[in-house]
Amino acid sequence: GVTYTELRRPCRTMILVNPHSGRGQALQLFTGHIRAMLTEASVPYTLVITEHQNHARELVRNADLTQWDALVIMSGDGLLFEVINGLMEREDWQQAIQTPLGMLPGGSGNALAASIHHYSQSPPAWNEELLLSCGFMLCKGLVGPLDLVSVHLASSQRLFSFLSLAWGFVADVDIESEKYRHVGAIRFLMGTLVRLASLRVYQGRLAYLPAKEVPKPPNERVKATRPPFTPQQPSLCSSLPCHLVPRASPKQSSLKNCVDTNLNQNSITNSSSVITNIRPGTQGNNKTASPTDSLLPSLDQPVPENWTVVNEEDFVLVLAIYQSHLAEDLWTVPGAMADDGLIHLFYVTAGISRPALLRLFLAMERGSHLACGCPHLVYEKVRALRLEPVSQQGMITVDGEVVEYGPIQAQVHPRMARLICG
Ligand code: ADP
Ligand code: MG
Q1: CA proximity to 109, closest of 398, 389, 344
Q2: Which of 110, 278, 307, 405 could form a disulfide linkage to 303, CB 3.0–4.6 angstroms apart?
């Protein structure tokens, strides 16, 4: 079963904020909803406001990690992607990637936050309520394992991914909808409707290594070793929505009780500090000792015989996902766990009608798309996969970020990282 450990106390936390993520309100959301909670729970933190893309990646690649007990992202999934890759680029990646990682949803794509919330067996939550739930998990400080997926690109670049690899419809919607970032998570629905109007087929070859042995059902594993929760800050707990607090009084308090709406940076520095210009140091930056991908031949070699080669070569989408949620309101993989050791591979073949595709995405809100009986939708649990696009034009995303377009392959590394959850 899953063994949750507890964060060291006091937990010295670095919180990385992307001020431009989502509607550009991540810092205000932090100050308004999270700051007081952390202060009350005596979590000492340093707020780091990123100044440009890859700032966080450079920072964690060179940071002295002995100073930190947790790295927390207040942004969308894109900033965690930077942090994980920064950690994996270090010479000491094996210890570095063991640093507990936390997620506070402040972006427009908050798939991991929605997934962690879902794994905690709480009823669905969105927006500020999801943020509060994640803030509360950070205060509780339980840490569980997180699978990572190693991704190889044609240029022999290698990336580490915690969420998804997408090609076709899903990748196009994700990137095209970034221009609607100011509307928040609903950008994916808007992007889906726009993309449906110009639905296209993507040609390519897909192959995968099926996961033959499926681990025990997730529920058994969660309940097995979760340590009992003892509220240490009763005043904080009593001000949270009751479903966030195990065995709490059924009376649901107003969310306003635990919200501090004064955006006053000086008061952040009372208990903690704000840093906006950490300079990268000089350690790390050596890739000699990275993990080996034993399941993957090189990209110019054929796939091994025990792989399945998909017959169809005309797709509407290919999506490999390793968390339950693709977005706050897209429950893509009902049975997924952060550490199930699986890549959940979905593909939709050409010939699906626009209404049928829309129905799939609408059903995904309730996680019922697999029950739609759609003959164009295929779902396989795999450990590795390879995708070779033939169409000249298209987009591939990893964790919602655009990567080089071309042949790509990936394999799962069970429990490589650690995640604040539960
Ligand atoms: P969202 O969910 O709103 O897309 P993300 O966390 O995914 O939010 O961030 C979007 C992109 O912004 C990512 O590619 C990330 O690397 C990048 N980024 C991070 N910090 C900054 C910054 N200070 N300025 C501009 N871009 C940034
Ligand atoms: Mg993003």
Answers
A1: 398
A2: 307
Q: Are 78 and 33 found together in one domain?
A: yes
Cβ–ligand 1 distance for 22 under 6 Å, the answer yes
Helix (H, G, I), strand (E, B) or coil at 415: strand
d(CA 306, CA 315): 23
Q: Give the model's pLDDT for residue 157.
A: 97
Cβ atoms 159, 397 nearer than 8 A: no
CA of 78 from ligand 2 middle (Å) equals 4
Lookup: tokens for 129: 């309520």
Q: Where are the strands (E) in 154-258, listed by range? A: 158-161, 164-168, 202-210
Q: Which letter does DSSP use for residue 405 in this model?
A: S
SS3 330: strand
Looking from the CA of residue 73, the nearest atom of ligand 1 is 6
How many domains is the chain built from?
2
Amino acid at 306: N
| Residue nearest to ligand 1 atom 26, measured at CA | 53
Both tokens of 84, joined, read 């994980």
Q: What is the CATH number of the domain that holds 317?
A: 2.60.200.40
33 in Cβ contact with 259 (< 8 Å) = yes
Q: Are 24 and 182 in contact (CB under 8 A)?
A: yes
Q: How far apart are CA 223 and CA 337, in angstroms?
A: 13
Q: Ligand 1, atom 12: nearest CA belongs to which residue?
A: 53
Q: What is the mean pLDDT of each run of 10 residues along the chain (422 residues)?
A: 86 97 95 97 97 98 98 98 98 98 96 98 94 97 98 97 98 94 87 95 98 55 39 34 29 26 30 48 54 96 97 98 96 97 98 97 97 98 98 96 98 98 90
77 is catalytic: yes
Structural tokens at position 327: 């977005």
CA distance linking residue 8 with residue 381, whole number of Å? 35
**Residue after which a domain boundary falls, among 275, 303, 322:** 275
Domain that holds residue 66: 5-147+217-275
